[in-house]
Amino acid sequence: MTDKKSFRTMIFLLFIIILLIGFSDFLDFMPATARNIILIVFVLAVVIYQSKRPVKDLKDVSRRYQSASLYSRKKALEVLNEGLKLETLNNNEKLYLYMQIALEQYKMKDYTNAVESFKRVVDEAIKTEYVRIEEKFLIKMVGTYILENKRSEAEKIYNKLLALGKCEKSKVVEGMLQNKG
């Protein structure tokens, strides 16, 4: 789903394209390639403006993160870390960013840093009311700890989250923790 800023930008671009196409008869003095170049330059200018616009809230961070993650996980991580510097974030928004950072590091197979990020997620989840960690996230978190030879720490975290009601009991996670092989 797009937010209002993205929607307005898309409508504005569409309007300009329609104007250029509609008034192309008046631009007959220009070769077709020149008209196409003008259109491409205009679209690129708008895209560059959107990417350089200052980050003000979580929506801006999410928008940049989504576009950056298409071509570079490293750049996506930078965007998420930049987002954590925003003073306007509440605990839920910080938790979301910490979760995304941990998952990006997990996907990059940077398990050492992912373990640290998962610790921050757990700390934020404990501080934040009405938060429950989903099983898919737990599986990745516990798997990362196991890959880093920190099975006992993973078990402590899982039991702590269970005791605080921050997650539901998971047969998959318990099986991972039981399996010593």
What is the rounded distance between the termini?
Answer: 43 Å
Tally of discrete structural domains: 2
User: Which value, in Å, is the CA radius of gyration?
Assistant: 23 Å
Number of distinct helices: 9
SS class? mainly alpha
User: Can you give the helix content as a percent range?
Assistant: over 70%
CATH architecture of the largest domain: Alpha Horseshoe
Largest sheet: none
Summarize model confidence as the mean pLDDT. 83
Keywords: Membrane, Transmembrane, Transmembrane helix
Protein name: Tetratricopeptide repeat protein
Transmembrane segments: 7-23, 29-49
Write the layout of secondary structure elements.
Blueprint: H1 4-22, H2 32-52, H3 58-69, H4 73-84, H5 91-107, H6 111-127, H7 135-147, H8 151-163, H9 171-178
Give a verbal description of the structure.
- The protein has 181 residues and is mainly α.
- The chain has 2 domains: 1-53; 55-178, Alpha Horseshoe (Serine Threonine Protein Phosphatase 5, Tetratricopeptide repeat), CATH 1.25.40.10.
- The protein has 9 helices and no strands.
- The protein is elongated.
- This is Tetratricopeptide repeat protein.
- The chain crosses the membrane at residues 7-23, 29-49.
